[in-house]
Design a protein that fits this description.
114 residues; mainly beta; seven-stranded mixed beta sheet; 11 strands; 54% strand; globular
C-alpha cells in the first residue's frame, strides 16, 4: 500500500508563488510516475504536470512557463513550484503516484485572490 500526502497549499495574491509537496510512503514498492492534477470549483479534474522517475516532465499548456515540477527519488517526494499565480489557478491540487497501482492524496487547496 502507498500513502500519498500533499502539502503547501494556501491563499496567495495574484502574481504570487506557492510550492506544493507530494510525499509518497512506498514501503517495498517502486515509485514511478508522479503527477499533479487540479480540480477547480465546479469543474472536472485536469492534469497540471507530471514527472517520470528519470526526470522527464510534461505540463498542461495553461501552466507552461509558470509552474515547475521536480522530484527527489531518495525521498519519494515530488514538488510543484507555482509562480505568477492567477485567479484561474484556484483549485484543489491532487497528487497521483504510480507504484503497484494508482494512488491519490487527499488534496491541498490553492486559492489565488485577484
Amino acid at each position: 500500500q502507498v500513502q500519498v500526502v500533499e502539502s503547501g497549499g494556501g491563499l496567495v495574491q495574484a502574481g504570487g508563488s506557492l510550492r506544493l509537496s507530494c510525499a509518497a510512503s512506498s514501503g517495498i514498492f517502486w515509485i514511478g510516475l508522479m503527477t499533479w492534477y487540479r480540480q477547480p470549483p465546479g469543474k472536472q479534474r485536469e492534469l497540471v504536470a507530471g514527472i517520470s522517475r528519470g526526470g522527464i516532465t510534461n505540463y498542461a499548456d495553461s501552466v507552461k512557463g509558470r509552474f515547475t515540477i521536480s522530484r527527489d527519488n531518495a525521498k519519494n517526494t515530488a514538488y510543484l513550484q507555482m509562480n505568477s499565480l492567477k485567479p484561474e489557478d484556484t483549485a484543489v491540487y491532487y497528487c497521483n503516484v504510480r507504484a503497484s497501482g494508482d494512488y491519490w492524496g487527499q488534496g491541498t487547496q490553492v486559492t489565488v485572490s485577484s
